[in-house]
Amino acid sequence: MKYAFIRAHQAEFGVRAMCRVLRVHFSGFYAWLKEPLSRRAQDDARQTELIRQAWCDSGKVYGYRKLADDLRDQGEQVSENRVARLAGIAGIMAQVGYKRRPGRYGGKPAVVASNTLDR
Predict the structure, then answer these.
(1) CB 86 within 8 A of CB 74
(2) Are 15 and 26 within 8 A, CB to CB?
(3) Cα distance between the two ends of the chain
(4) Which sequence spans correspond to the domains of the chain?
(5) Residue 105 binned pLDDT confidence (cut-offs 50, 70, 90)
(6) Separation of alpha carbons 54 and 68, rounded Å
(7) How big, in percent rounded to 5, are the helix, strand and coil portions of the chain?
């Protein structure tokens, strides 16, 4: 966030002065310019797409546990906690239930007892 601010205001102020005020090292800023996203952020983006693909393949039914199993079957090294975090950020949720329509009982017809007591 600070590095993005420095890049946005690079024309107005000196880079070293802004780094000093924001208490970041200028070499960190220049390293960030070469690669704005960290390796973990890049891995998260890649794995989020894999999670989304596995979720769509399941008919948007699977939760994070089964999605983690699917990714492990594909050869990815992921934990359930990471899949849960990435799925939550991406808005991927398991199908919790479905509507059950009240209807006819499809089994045997009801047996009516004879009226022996005349009631």
Answers:
(1) no
(2) yes
(3) 82
(4) 2-34, 39-90
(5) low
(6) 9
(7) 55, 0, 45
